[in-house]
Amino acid sequence: MLPDPVLQSLTGRPPADVADIDEVALGGGTGAATAGLTRLTVRLRDGREATVIRKECQPLTSGRHRHGATDPRHWAYWRREPLAYASGLLPSGPGLRAPRCHGVVDEVVYLEDAGATPADVRTAARQLGAWQSGVGLPDVPWLGGHQLAQRVAVSELDWSAVDADERAVRLWSRRDELLALLAALPRVVSHGDFHPLNLRADGSDTVALDWGTMSAAPVGADVAHLALGAQADVLDDYLAGADGAFSRDDVDAGCRATLVLVGASRVHWMLTTGASLPPGYVDFLWAHRP
């Protein structure tokens, strides 16, 4: 049920000391390559318990991004997360960090149970800035390219089919201009989905989940995902963490262009699926247009 090296890493005890292991399937695994999430609770004979998250990966087989599942430079590459954890390149804190990894076995990653305490978004922004300013782009074949450009390239949105705020339509109509702006900005190593739902607090650390879209992205792109998810301005916090490593104009431009393109596409998706737009969502997009 648990590979011996994973069990040893998790508990520090041999398999003979295990009394039983319970499995609970978890929801919420929305990554393109996520096949399943399971919480395993290990009970030792001395009464102690330890938990680990088993994350299984598999390639997309349908949808407009399925062609990218086997392309190491595409955001949907299915083996990126196991390779990232095995590489040792993910942030380990203090500050921003990935969940501690107890082992990678083929397409399965065994991870720390990071709990459910949400991270403070302003703290996360500062720690994101400190991480991105302190590391270069890793020279690895599986690092993704610009996810937003790859998504937009295959996204033909029919706005005539939805009753959308005209401002969202106007923002989406600028996609070529905004992608050109983003392509001219400095690139940084990026989480790729730095959304509040993927962030957990662990004391003074912020634990970022779901590294399957780790990529080289324009500076400001991760800030945009955080700002959009929280509907909060976090640019100053990010710049404080980066401590002068990036131009404010570059980060602001990358954040604004990413925020409005991602946000406009989400408006279309929410209206298409019947989901309710969060209050003030389009107002927030419009206020942050480049």
Q: Mind explaining what this structure looks like?
A:
Strand 2 (34-44) and strand 3 (49-57) form a beta hairpin. 36% of the residues lie in helices and 20% in strands. The chain has helices at 4-11, 80-87, 121-134, 147-153, 166-173, 175-183, 221-230, 235-242, 248-273, 281-287; strands at 18-26, 34-44, 49-57, 96-97, 101-105, 108-112, 187-190, 199-202, 205-208, 215-218. It has 290 residues and is of the alpha+beta class. It is built from ten helices and ten strands. It has a single domain (61-97, 117-287), classed as Alpha-Beta Complex (Aminoglycoside 3'-phosphotransferase, Chain: A, domain 2). The longest helix has 26 residues, at 248-273. The protein has a five-stranded antiparallel beta sheet, sandwiched between helices. Strands 4-9-8 form a three-stranded mixed beta sheet. It has a two-stranded antiparallel sheet with strand order 7-10.
> Strand arrangement, largest sheet?
1-2-3-6-5
Assign the CATH architecture: Alpha-Beta Complex
Run of helices and strands: HEEEHEEEHHHHEEEEHHHH
Number of strands: 10
The number of helices is 10
Strand content: 15-25%
